[in-house]
Amino acid sequence: MTAHPAARSLRTTPEGLLWEPSDRWVRGRKGDVTVVDSRHPLLVWEPALPVPQYAFPREDVRTDLLRPARQPRPGTHTGSTVFYDLEADGETVRNAAWTFPADDLAGHIAFEWFRRRSLDHWYEEEEEIFIHPRDPYKRVDALPSTRHVRVEIDGTVVADTHRPVLLFETSLPTRYYIPREDVRLDLFEPTDHSTGCPYKGTAQYWSWRGGVDVPPNVVWSYPDPLPATTAIQGRLAFYNEVVDIVVDGERQERPDTPFSAMLRVRPAS
Question: Please, which of 33, 56, 221, 245 could form a disulfide with 38 given CB 3.0 to 4.6 Å?
Fold first, then answer.
């Protein structure tokens, strides 16, 4: 895991967990049932996960809805020892929650976010959050620009604009969001792929129509982004990892990112 900047409130456990108290009011629902309602959550970073998750004081959790897991999955989370199935809203969710063994986190319960969503809705204050809790050590800034940005695939210019929005996200390369009218969308075809981001919202994708070996879903757009990134609404961005991007006449180096390995995998024909 990438080390976080030093912070007075960050603490480390012998198991390698990082954690700190959060002042956010966090609630989680399964259907119409509020399972978690906490004004004293902890943010926890596991060594193998680049994003945080919440752990809640036991008294802030509807423990009457939790049952010892019938088929616990030891090793799923760092040092996790006790797993719970959740029975709520007429549904049973296996291994929906667990406890960390660290003494610092005793009396706290965490819920599954990544492998499957154990609860249907999560809220920080009155705003619904998606995918995972937002990291307080990560910034996402979407800034309009007049830079000249050109995107090429195997020498073919697929986008050319002087009106990009540059999205700066901690630990990731700059993404260039280009007005739709400045992109050759006729060279791409829409797919049914979608992803979610807690900072930007839900993205839709397009794949390259050409014969060049380009990974699928190389172009994406957020038609209805979250409030913090409304400047990218409807614009299109390309994976810098696999296309050529020229900014103000300077060809950008293709970065190596957490997405690189995924983009090297081609679907079976």
Answer: 56
